[in-house]
Amino acid sequence: MNIENREFIQQCCEQVRQQMGSNTIAATLRHALTNTLDTTLQRGDRGVFVITGDIPAMWLRDSACQMRPYLLFCQQHPELQAMIAGVIQQQMHFITLDPYANAFNRYPDSTGHQSDLTHMQPQIWERKYEVDSLCYPLQLAWLFWKITGITSYFTDTFTRACSLVLNQWEIEQHHHSRSPYRFERPHPPAPTDTLGYEGKGAPVSYTGMTWSGFRPSDDACDWGYLVPANFFASVVLGYLAEIAREVLNNRRLERRATALKSAIEEGIEKHAVVRHPDYGEIYCYETDGAGHYLLMDDANVPSLLSLPLLGAIANDHPRYLNTRRFILSGDNPYFHRGRFAQGVGSPHTPSGFIWPIALAVQGLTARDPAEKLAMIQMMTATDAGSGLMHESFDPDNPARFTRPWFSWANAMFCELVLDYCGLSVSKLIANKE
After folding, report:
1. Domain limits at 257?
2. pTM to 2 decimal places
3. Looking at the keywords, is Methyltransferase present (predicted)?
4. Would 414 be classed as within a structural domain?
5. CA 298 and chain centroid, separation
6. What's the confidence (pLDDT) of residue 212?
7. Is residue 245 part of a domain?
8. Is residue 395 part of a domain?
């Protein structure tokens, strides 16, 4: 698939160059916007298939994030509208295929992790169940609708996918008593690649939140209730209720989404707030609802750092500010400092490495424009001369990095630069309303 009219790229990059006075930032923006269009888009069996980069599979999460920068330009650009609508249609088809899967093949050719001990199908690349994998397509569908007013993709497949999401999240409120989901990876390269307790994960108690087997890093959760993912779910359930009411005229879907949203939010408030001796009330990253919790944050989104970006909480909320101070400190076991950069990393990548995605999130959630600019400059200065973002890098030696081709990180850089220049999805929607 090819987007022939790319005048918007030239125009926005020139605006960035003039506004920021940096040829380097503008050139990196141009490279990133062009790279996604040139290297990741393919015709799918039900829409537009988007590979994540150096892995030839479509992640529900990554593909939604890869589209976000183009939302800013799609109002007057029919080719971009067709592209984004096609991605949503493909995502919804995949959800109806299996809502527990996180990544899919372009065709049912049985590539990917077919030896995993779970209910695999030929078109599934990987079946690590992550709450955020269902959040992102709903978020993208709502954003696209609010920006363009287009509703043609709200089909029977979309409604069926939404019903499956609600069913699954309701079941996973009672994971150990009602869930059919199991996942084990024989001879995993790392312990985080599989679930313990015979594939069902550590025991959890009912909280109102919905259970997740894996984090957005594709690493296994220690405790089953992933707090930032539940925040994200509460936000998109509000989106779903609005779509059901305003477009689908489906009152039952609206009521179910609203009730589940309320239960998750009550669970977060009751079970995910921890009083820290140095930071005051903060949110934990994971909990089991039975007294265990994990204080950390991961680079991948949804993260605690990203909560304002998700629309879950204001970036000046006292509890968020406390949590943010914790995350951006040495008390977060995955916050790392080096000679060239400092930021949040992940147990998914080598110890001490930090992620450009997390730097972008720090900038996008910052209240001070100077902090936003600092993150942009840090990202462009640590790209190892590639003009693109990597998955992670060594802050003492940015030439040491993982994944030379990672489109999600490129999209996050674009989003941050454009946000700094006054172009953001949230502002675009607010101006339309």
Report:
1. 43-333
2. 0.98
3. no
4. no
5. 12
6. 98
7. yes
8. no
